[in-house]
Structure formats: C-alpha cells, structure tokens
Amino acid sequence: MIPSGGTECFWQFAHQTGYFYFSYEVQRTLGMSHNRHIVATAHTPQGFIIGTSQDVRGQINFSTQETGFYQLCLKNQQNHFGSVQVYLNFGVFYDGPEMDHKQNERKQLNDTLDAIEESTRKVQNNVFHMWRYYTFARMRKMADFFLLQSNYNYVNWWSTAQSLVIVLSGILQLYFLKRLFNVPTTDTKKPRC
C-alpha cells in the first residue's frame, strides 16, 4: 500500500553481469480519488536514474552495469486523496556462469555431461521466464478482480439508494394524495359546504 502523496522504495542486490526486471500494476485504489497512475523509477547503486515508468502498469528492464544494491521507488504523487495497492514483481537473473579453464577441460573430457548440463540450464532459464510471465498474468488477473469487485459494490450501492428513493417518493405521493382528498368536518360530523 502506498499512501496518498507517498513514496515506497525497495532495494535489490545485483552483480555486474545480470539482467534486472521490474514490473508493477496498480491493483486498486482506496479513498476518495480513483486515479490509478503512479510513477516508478529504478536507480543505480550510485543513485542515478536508469528507467522511469508512469502508468497504471509497467515494466523496467535493464542489464546491470555495476555490482551493488539497485533502488526501486514507487511514488503516489498524482493521487492526493487515496492510497493505492500495487502488485510488484522484480529480481535479477543471469544467463549463466562464464566458462573458466576447468570447465573447458571437463567439456573436452565428457561432452555428454556438458550437453546435458547445457540443456538443463536452458530448460531452467525457460522455466524461469515462464514463471515471470505467469506472475505478470496473475498480476493482471488480480487487477481485474479488484475492478470487478469495485464495480459490483458501486452497482449495489446505487441500486439500494435508488430503491430507497422510489419507496420514499411513493410514500410521499400517497401522503399528499390523502391530504388532497381529506375533507375537514364540523363538530357535528357533517362535511362543510
């Protein structure tokens, strides 16, 4: 939850040869305002801005150039009267370790084992990327769920309010119609002329 006009920051450690991914989506807003736009920024360990996104949902992807803690900030500066709930997914992945001299020797000795390792590494990398897409789809599903829930509550509230207005107007009409045909009588219970 990011309060109105507030900022939330997160840090993620990454080595120099990694690929950083950061995706977000505003799930719902709470409060009077329904502006779902936020500002997301990614900073280097030195504090320089790498990427910026200003929308309801977005992604910032980049390759890490230096080792250190990368800062991710979410700002709710456009929404002054309500807080927002944001779904986050971020991390670092590496394509694979560099081959050193011992691995080159082993590759010459046993090509079958290296082929299996390479295939396993590729499968593991593909599974990781499938997991990323799955979490992105899950994020979209939750945003749709909260929008549906909000619309459901809105329709129920207005239906109840309109039903009360209809019943109240019927009671008032009945009261004024009775009053219109109400004939005052005298003490002897005879109608006046």
Automatic annotation (TrEMBL):
Record's bilayer topology term: Single-pass type I membrane protein
Domain GOLD: 7-92
Protein species of origin: Tupaia chinensis (Chinese tree shrew)
Keywords: Coiled coil, Endoplasmic reticulum, Membrane, Signal, Transmembrane, Transmembrane helix
GO cellular component: endoplasmic reticulum membrane
UniProt keyword Transmembrane present: yes
InterPro entries: Emp24-like, GOLD_dom
Coiled-coil annotated spans: 99-126
Transmembrane segments: 157-177
Keyword Transmembrane helix listed: yes
Family: Belongs to the EMP24/GP25L family.
Chief localisation class: endoplasmic reticulum
Compartments, as annotated in UniProt: Endoplasmic reticulum membrane; Membrane
Matches recorded under Pfam families: EMP24_GP25L
Domain of life from the UniProt record: Eukaryota
Protein name stated in the entry: Transmembrane emp24 domain-containing protein 6
